[in-house]
Amino acid sequence: MRYIRYAFLAALAIVLVTLALANRESVVLNTLPEGLRGFPGAGLVDFSVQMPLFLVIFGGILAGLMIGFVWEWFREHKHRAEATRKQGEVRKLERELKKTQAERDKDKDEVLALLDQAS
């Protein structure tokens, strides 16, 4: 199984390097289209940067992954909250059980109490 993972990672690396080598030409990345640059206050967010196309592609992939991770984290919040609530309930019930067992075994001999707890 480990060799399959290494083979997959090697194939992925070859594909990514080939993609990077094939897309080395520079492109201009703008934050606003030409039509919106004339609006007042647009200068605060209007900038352009020139970079190789493969960096734009890899940046888009990375941004998509990060957005997906954050989205999934928010989506699973209710499940984590429910698990935390149930863990608290289990701890409460365990404390109650120990208290009940201690009250039950209060008048018993120590050896008999230990035997009851073991079973």
Strand order of the largest sheet: 1-2
N to C succession of SSEs:
HEEHHH
Main sheet record = 2 strands, antiparallel
Give the CA-based shape.
elongated
Distance between the termini: 43 Å
How many domains make up the coordinates? Answer: 2
- Strand portion: 5-15%
Strands, total number: 2
Instruction: Look at the structure and give the mean pLDDT.
Output: 88
Query: What integer value in Å does the Rg equal?
Result: 31 Å
The oligomerization state is single chain
Number of H- or I-type helical stretches? 4
Helix content: 55-70%
Keywords: Cell membrane, Coiled coil, Membrane, Transmembrane, Transmembrane helix
InterPro entries: LapA_dom
Transmembrane segments: 48-71
Coiled coil: 76-117
Structure description:
The protein is mainly alpha-helical and 119 residues long. The chain has two domains: 2-75, no CATH class; 78-118, no CATH class. The chain has four helices and two strands, in the order αββααα. The chain has helices at 2-22, 53-75, 77-104, 110-118; strands at residues 26-30, 48-52. Strands 1-2 form a two-stranded antiparallel sheet. The longest helix has 28 residues, at 77-104. The mean pLDDT is 88.
